[in-house]
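Supplementary material to the annual report.
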Amino acid sequence: MTGVRYVEATRTYEGTDIPAVDTLNLDVGDGELLVLVGPSGSGKSTALRMLAGLEPLDGGAIHIGERDVSNVRPRDRDIAMVFQNYALYPQLSVAENMGFALKQHGVPKEERTTRVRETAKILDLEPFLDRKPKHLSGGQRQRVAMGRAIVRQPAVYLMDEPLSNLDAKLRVQTRAEVVELQRRLGVTTVYVTHDQVEAMTMGHRVAVLKGGVLQQCDAPRTLYHEPINLFVAGFIGSPAMNLVEVGEDRPLRIGEAELELDGAGVAAAGDAGGNITVGFRPEALRVGDGPLSARIRTVEDLGSEMFVHVAVDHRGDSVPLIAKMAPPFHGEPDDHVGLQIVGTTHVFGEDGSRITSSRASLRSPGAVSRS
Amino acid sequence: MSAEAGTATVGERVWVNRALGGLAWLVGLIVFFPVFWMVLNSFKTEADANTSPKLFFTPTLDEYRHVTESAGGLLSFSEAFTNSMVIVLVSVLIVLALAIPAAYALAVRPVHKWRDVLFFFISTKFLPVVAAILPVWILARNFNLLNTRLVLIILYTAINLPLAVWMLRSFFAEIPKELIEAAEIDGASLRGQLTSIILPMAAPGIAATALLCVIFAWNEFFYAVQLNPVDGSTMPIWVTTNVSTRGDFLAKLSAASVLACIPVVLAGWLAQKRMIRGLAMGAIK
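Predicted assembly:
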C-alpha cells in the first residue's frame, strides 16, 4: 500500500559544506515501524524532517507510496507527525487539538466529533477532551499528540523522539503501547530516537546513522549479532560491546592471552592485514578462571544480572572491559580474576568494517591449541 | 556562635529590605505627586487653585464644564477629541495590519538578511524629529495635507511602525517553531496558521504593542502642532489652547490635562493584565 523510499536524499544546511544527511537510500515497507537511531548530529531528525517536508532536499528524492513528494508541501503529503515536545496548540482543548487537522481538511463537524471520540477512546483520553493541554500531565499530553496523529488516518506516521520527555517508567510503558498501537493500525511509521534501547525494542528494522551517513539498516537481532562496523557494534547494545584494539600482531592477543577463533574466522582474520580491533559482548565474557588476568574495578548488581567491570593490562595500558554475569557472583573490587571469552567475537579491520565473526576463546601463551 | 551570627544576618537583611521598600515608596510618591496635585487642582475653583497650596477644599466640576463647553481658542474639546480618536485608532489599525505580516516574515520565516531589515526599521528612529520637520512640512504642504487628519494618520503610522515590527517580531519569535510546523503538517494554510495558531498565541503581545502605539500616538505633540495648528488638531494641542495669558488658569488647565490623560490611562488600565503578560512573554515561556 504505502511505503516510504529515500533515494539518494541529501540535505546540506546553509553555511556548511558537510551534509546533515548524505545520499540516504532507505526503503520503509508498508506497515513497517522503522526506527532511525544515532547520536546527536547523526542526521536522524533531519532525515525525518525531510520526509515531513519541513526541510528541503538538496539532492535526491523522497517517495511516499508511488508518489515523488520531494517538492510537495507538508500538508499535501498525507503524513502526521508527533513532535518531541508534543507541539500541542495551547489555546485549543484536547478535542480541538485532535480535530484540528480534520477541520483544516474540511471534514464535516459531525464526522470530526465521531472520529475524535473514537480515537480518544483508544487512548483513554475521553475524560480530558474539554481540557487545555496545560492542565494535562506529561503522559497525557504525549497521548494527545499521538491521538492528533492517529485521528487523521494518514499514510505515514512520523515520530520525532516522542517519548524522550517522559520519565523512565512511563517511557517503558508507553513504548509498548506505541508498538501495540502501530501494529493494530498497520500504518507505516518512521520513528526517530537517540536511545538505542528504544530503537531495539520498537523497530521492525533499525537504521543506524552517523554523521549523516546510513551505517546499517537491519532487524534489531541482526544489528546486535552482526554489526557491519565498529560504530554500530559500539552503539548498539547496553552495556556496550567490549572493543579491544589488538594491533598488527598475529596471532591476535589480548593482554598475554592468545585469541583463538573457530572455523572460517581463523582464515579471515589471518588474511586481514593492518590494525585489527576485536569486539565481544559483555555476555560473552566470563569472569572467574581464565587465561587473561584482570582486576575487578566495580560490581553492579541489578538483581537479575550483574555487570562486572574489570581492567586488564593490554599493550602497556589498562583497558576496561565489562562482563555480564548471572547471579550469584562473588567478587569484590580489586580482586584478581581470570577472564575467558565464551561467545562470539567480532573482528574489525583497520577501516572499521567487520571482517568476520566466530566463536572464540582465550588461551595462555604456549598452551596447546584445542584444535 | 555561628547560629547567632546567622540570625543577625537574617535580621539585618529584613531591616535592609524594609528600608529599600520604604525608599521605593517614597520615590514613587514623589514621582506621582505632581499628577496627584494636577487631579486635585482640576476639582478646585480657580481661586482655590491659585492660592497657597490647599489640601482641603470643596470639590467642584465647574472647570470641567468650563473647558468642555467653551471653545477656549479655535479648537473645541469635542473636535479635538474626535480628531484624536480617529487619527489614533486608524493609524494603530494600519500599523498592526502592516506590522503583523512584517513580523511574521522576520520571525517565523526569516527572509534573507532579516537582521539588516530589522536594523533598517529601527534606524529610522535615529533621526531627531526636529531635523525631519521641515521636509515633512514641505511635503505635506505640496500634497495639500496641512491641517488634515490624514497627515497625522500617515505620520503616526510611520512613527509607530518600526516599534511595532520590533515588538511583534520578538513576540512571534517566542512561539515554538514546532507549533507552526505541526499546523503546517496538519494542513493549515498560511492564513490558517496565522489566524488559528500565531495570532491567538501572540494576542497578549499584540495587545501590548497596540497599546503602546495608542499611547505614543495619543500623546504626540510636536508634529501635530507644526502641521495641524488650525484644523485636524489633537488633544495635546487642545490642552495648550487652555493656557491663558489673561489671569488665573491653573484649575482649568488641570481639568483639560486630566481629560487628555483619561483615555490612555483607561486603555492602559483595561489592558494592564494582557500588557504585562505581553511584555513579560519572553520571561514566562
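Chain A has a mean pLDDT of 90.
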